[in-house]
# Entry
Amino acid sequence: MATASGTDGGDLLDRLRAQGVVRLGIAGEIPFGYIDKDGRLTGEAPELARVIFKRLGVDRVQPVPTEFGSLIPGLNSQQFDVVAAGMYINPERCEQVVFSDPDYQMLDSFIVRKGNPLGLHDYRDVVEKKAKFATGTGYAEIRYAVEAGYEEGDILIVPDQVAGLNAVEAGRVDVFAGTALTTREVVKKSAKAEVTEPFTPLVDGKPHIDGGGFAFRRTETALRDAFNAELHELKRSGELLRILRPFGFTEAEMTDLTAKELCVG
# Structure
């Protein structure tokens, strides 16, 4: 088991072991980290944190809810010890914190009418078949569609995946794009729509995959390294998928990407 002491990598793990509790910054976002209707902390990141910190000798996790935009500032001002919110790892955030390697990757998929009558499987299909296209407010999928040649002004922007499903079911659009996880979950009760297989969008002509992980203060690299060692063991054993599966994650969301790769962009 990795240890953390001394000044080079921080001594937070030693302090957490002594306290017996680690404070987790969460943002109330299903399925990543939230308080359920019974008042219990859950989500893919807190449940994974419970397992890993237990293995590191810290028995309890304590939620500290905040807004998503306050997670990194709250971490760096010592309001909590680690961000456990499924946060995407990107170059801008990597300048402010250090990340674990990602515990999941996220591909895209489409909501289409049953049988996928237009045969839409990626953004190039949408462009070539002149499909009516929708995605959510502020979604990265806007960029991916434009990258493939879709006119941004022709995109129907809706609030979220539920509105996207409704637009497909009503025939207002042919396709709604979102993350594989959110689209898969929202179509489960639909009689009129289905979800396509997950796929990798292109950015600057290259496949682009997002990945989410845990954030630590830049001074606490020893804790990050110890956390990573346990995370990698859970990946090797298959235990990681078992922990994440109840939150809608599948084999398609498992990844060998590293934080270093995602920090480069």
